[in-house]
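Morning F.,

Quick status update on the modeling queue. The single chain you submitted on Monday has been processed. Sequence for confirmation:
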Amino acid sequence: MEIIKPGKLKRGDLIGIISPSSPVSDKAKLDAGVSYFEKRGYRVKVGTNVMKAWGYLAGTDKERVDDIHNMFLDNEVKLIICLRGGYGASRLLDKIDYSIIKNNPKIFCGYSDITVLQNAFFNKTGLVTFAGPMAGVDFYKKVSEFTEQSFWNTITSSEPIRIKHPDGERLRSYRNGIVEGRLIGGNLSLFASLIGTEYLPEPEGNILFIEEVSEVPYRIDRMLNQLKLSGYLGRIKGVILGSFTDCEESDPQRKSLKFEEVMEDYFIKNFNAPVLYNLYHGHVKNNLTIPIGVKVRINGTNCSIDFLESHLA
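Structure tokens below.
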């Protein structure tokens, strides 16, 4: 597969905002996100259908696909950032013209439900995309300095990323070993939903990173088991676990395995590749921007991730 890397963002460039999943609850969030980027010296273009709503979706499938196509086709737009996640991006996968994405590479950023678009883009076109903050989630309010610095450093510089956690926090390891591969993944439930489709990147030669929010242990178990039974986990070269936020059973009346016990069952007892955990990425305040599709080396012995190439052209 040919890997396509977008160009880096420069001051004064045009940033496009789209909403491929759920509608934003308050236009003030959109306005605040636009204001944030303008104050940093960028121009902003809001997708035609961004404020549309069709039930739990941010407009019809056609309206949301049109905004994706139009932003990629606009030669002035250098960064496309999603307004929010939620649900609905997976409905668009069989309606997108991937030749438009391939022939007009741009920085594309979001997380959560946006995971399906990012992995489909990579699998269908080879485009490197970015799992990172969103305009109406992170940038409409005061964003953490850590998240902000990681985002801007990543999309404005072609230097390979260096993983650095705040407050002295470190990566930790479930399994030792050193492997290299291309980084794929994102939100666990969305990534698992791609099993059996043509939009899921092949596991061979790749390293999987996953995160999740508000899923109790049995649901995490179910998703990981789906990846296991499909043969996917057995063929991946290594795993990086990001933030699993609010993923313990909160009802004391319900019998449950602990989240940690589920992770140990899949990644210590029944796994034969390096596994790192405690990556600051996901539905958290301090959120690293992670490029999907670049080559990395993970070291389970000294608990490190090294990006082996640039993520931008």
